[in-house]
User: Fold PAR14 polymerase from Nyctibius bracteatus.
Amino acid sequence: KSTETSPSVVLENIQGCSPKCLRMLMENISGLSVDDDFTVEVIPEINVAVATFKKSVDTEEFVKKCLQNKRVKEFKMTARLLELTQSIKAENIPDSVSTDYITVYFESVRNGGGPVADVQLFPEENSAIITFCDHKGNT
Assistant:
């Protein structure tokens, strides 16, 4: 088992819970406050939300609390850790941006990046897949 745990938790099957309700539920379960302590990104196309903790939180314990929570059970939601990854997708990239620029941008520590292993540019959808040498770069 890895000693490093993801700072993000995936909540699945969220269609019965509005984004505002979901945020309040997460605050109730965690005892933390949305925006200050964690962010919630709702992805309605695949019926999930991802909570990413800014503070050091035992996310495995948070998942357990979610799965035991009465409201989470009523909504028939599930929770699991988001697996650590070395690749991210960047969207809304202007046509004029080069792979070199993207590499330098995402290697910037100031931008939360790290050493980049590869950049695949998809100009037709204005996006790129950035693969880091280590998953720590994709913050």
Remarks:
- The CA atoms of residues 13 and 77 lie 5 Å apart.
- The chain has two domains: 8-81, 87-132.
- The first helix runs from residue 19 to 30.
